[in-house]
Amino acid sequence: MQPWVQGLVILCLIAVTIALVPAIIALRRSAERADRVLAILEGELRPLVGEVRGLVHELRGLSEEARGEMQRIGGLTDRAQDAVEGVSRVLAAVTGLTRAGQLVGVAAGLKTGLEVFLHRLRRNDADGKREGDQP
Q: How would you label 6-20 residue by residue, b for 16+ Cβ within 10 Å and e otherwise?
């Protein structure tokens, strides 16, 4: 190779080396900063992850309690429905008794009215015979 070409290649290599050295230094500084930031994040994330795990555990417990309470409420609702049905049956029976009582009352009233009517009729009949006996 000719000496002037070799000189030109050497000059190019020196120029590239001079340009690469600051870039490599900047890349090294960026890598060190990224390492520091990652260390800070790691230090702060560990407690947060622990707290999130605790919150998830508490949430799981609360959901289990809520599920149990919902089952209890379902049981109470079933019992209340059974009680309402029983009360409904009792009210139907009482209504039937009330109607029967009303009918018995009407029958007793009719009987009493008939007895009073017959009593007065007999008394008027008896009074009429006595008056007829005196003329």
A: eeeeeeeeeeeeeee
Six token digits for residue 123: 């008394």
DSSP 74: H
Half-sphere exposure of 43 (CA within 13 A, CB side): 6
Other Cβ atoms less than 10 A from the Cβ of 24: the count is 11
* Six-digit token string for 46: 């560990």
pLDDT in tens, 79-106: 888 888 888 888 787 777 777 778 888 8
DSSP 119: H
In this predicted structure, what is the pLDDT of residue 67?
A: 93
At 11-29, the pLDDT tens digits run 999 999 998 999 999 999 9
Claim: this prediction has a pTM higher than 0.85: no
Q: How far is CA 67 from the centre of its chain?
A: 9
Angle at 81 between CA 76 and CA 82, to 5 degrees: 95
